[in-house]
Design a protein that fits this description.
The protein is mainly alpha-helical. It contains two helices and four strands; from the N terminus they run αββαββ. It has two domains: 64 residues, no CATH class; 31 residues, no CATH class.
């Protein structure tokens, strides 16, 4: 799911860049496309804001979804089968 969202965001940014650079008149530059330094700087700032926003959203999401042990409430990794602190198995018969 995350990969699909990331790929779709990257595709949308690339399409927006192609459309933005392909036009002859830029409303942010108020002139004909001759010196694109200001336009590219603006696009870079917009992309930076989008990347920062997606990183912050992913950080909040990873902080919300923690895997905790059912026995001792210690934080566990997703691929751990047994808790290293209390020895309780996650996917076994001894789930509480």
């Amino acid at each position: 799911m995350k990969k699909k969202i990331g790929i779709s965001i990257i595709c949308l940014v690339l399409v927006a860049l192609i459309i933005y650079i392909g036009t002859m008149y830029h409303p942010l530059q108020n002139g004909v496309c001759g010196s694109e330094v200001l336009a590219l700087r603006t696009v870079g700032i917009i992309i930076g804001i989008m990347i920062l926003g997606s990183v912050l959203l992913d950080f909040k999401r990873s902080m919300m979804y923690k895997t905790l042990c059912l026995g001792c409430a210690a934080e566990m990794e997703e691929d751990w089968v047994m808790c290293p602190y209390c020895g309780l198995e996650r996917r076994g018969d001894d789930l509480r």
